[in-house]
Amino acid sequence: MTLPGRPRVWFGRLPLRLRGWFGRLPVVTRLVLAVAVTMSLVLTAAAGLVYWRVQTALDRQLHDDLAAYRHSLDRAVRAGTAPPPGPSGSLYQVLDTHGRVLAASGAVGRRPLLTPAELGAAAQGHAVRRDVGSLLPITPDTLRLAAERVRAGGAMRVVVAAVRRGHRDEALRELLAQLALASGLTLIAASYVGYRTARAALRPVERYRTAAAALADGGPNLRLDVPADRDDEITRLGHTLNRMLDRLEASAVRERRFVADASHELRTPLSLLRAEVDLALHRPRSTEELDQTLRSVDAEVQRLIDLSNALLDLEELGSTSHITRAPVRPADLVETAVARHLRTAGRAGRQLTADAPDTPVDVDARWLVPALGNLVDNALRHGGGAVTVTATVHEDRLRLSVTDEGPGFPPGFLPRAFDRFARAEDSRTSAGSGLGLAFVQAVAMAHGGTARAENSGGGATVTLDVPC
């Protein structure tokens, strides 16, 4: 037993399968098929309109000729005269109401042109019009006839007038052939143009795919060749992919740099730790010697911790696409950064002063406080005299400066002061990793600002200039 819903389920699945099949085709094939189907519908509609207009014009002309010939036949039958000559290919028959042929053209003779039903309808006074033969397939003796009842000499007659449709049908067949040929050629041309256009439009996509595949295989410094004189969807895709490649390359560079920096800088304290432990294990040690060894190990471990934290902070800043800005008073920011160094300055007998306004600014205090603290720590560790921290706000920019009264930066050190692990020759024996100023510059760049180091007469000055 067939359930009523089964056919609907079957036919409902068919379009889904067709869509699935269509979706698995290549993009170029789908575009060409879409163009071909659309052009087929358009050409069919255009050809149908042209054919209908031409057929209507030919039928109107044929109808006018037949109507004129039938009227002349009616007048001749009523008058009892010989039928007048009609248009080329015209035929006639004069019948009584029983279907007997009373007069006819030589080409038709007594062959009946009307069926018994049509004869009965005409005898009752109805107008009969009919085409004999078909356009396709081709049939001989194609006619268009019209029959009406006429009174002649007190008797009823049925007058049948006919004209041949040969020229009309031949013209329509020729028109159909020409339309089919023109539509076929147009469809082929449109499909070819659609194919070439789709290939040309998708060629950059294929080029991008090949380049991306090369990148996936490890190709270095790869960029997509995007035309600079265009602004379409494909070129915008290329620019987007290039930006993505830039970020991927920058991320890879940061990763390689982080690994290289970490392996380079961690090697020394780890080697010292290993040497201290080996020396302690080489022979029995006294309590004082073990205590000294543990203090040395503790110092190296703290150095490792500080170095790891600095590297991780630099990596986090380099991989962060934006910072979190929030209103903060520069006075609070400076006070927080300076507070943790007041005791150190006091033990060294150095003056540490700060000057900052209360105007709120939008910055990320999470990063600016430790950056400013690094500058104060550097000034106390490598500079001399009083240390002054100054904050100013001007034209939506926050400028933070730390100045000391020491000897300043060595001239050869200034161009590379913000490089990672860059350290002046006279400070290589002191504590520090050489990452402080690199961290300061990373914070400034994350804010969209700059960092600058210079010698200011009686000391060194480092300035952060960030938008706020």
Work out the number of β strands.
12
**Percent of residues in helices:** 55-70%
Please compute the radius of gyration using only Cα atoms.
51 Å
Span between termini: 80 Å
Shape: rod-shaped
CATH fold type of the largest domain: Beta-Lactamase
Order the strands across the largest sheet as they lie in space.
2-1-5-4-3
Write the layout of secondary structure elements.
Blueprint: H1 6-23, H2 27-79, E1 90-96, E2 101-104, H3 116-123, E3 128-132, E4 143-152, E5 155-164, H4 166-216, H5 233-282, H6 287-319, E6 326-328, H7 330-339, H8 342-347, E7 352-355, E8 361-363, H9 365-382, E9 387-394, E10 397-403, H10 436-446, E11 450-455, E12 460-467
Parallel strand pairs: 7-9
Antiparallel strand pairs: 1-2, 1-5, 3-4, 4-5, 6-8, 9-10, 10-12, 11-12
Describe the structure.
This protein is of the alpha+beta class and 468 residues long. It has three domains: 201 residues, PAS domain (Beta-Lactamase, 2-Layer Sandwich); 99 residues, Signal transduction histidine kinase, dimerisation/phosphotransfer (DHp) domain (Helix Hairpins, Orthogonal Bundle); 142 residues, 2-Layer Sandwich (Heat Shock Protein 90). 55% of the residues lie in helices and 16% in strands. It is built from ten helices and twelve strands. A five-stranded antiparallel beta sheet has the order 2-1-5-4-3, sandwiched between helices. A five-stranded mixed beta sheet has the order 7-9-10-12-11. α2 runs antiparallel to α4, α6 packs parallel to α10 and α7 crosses α9.
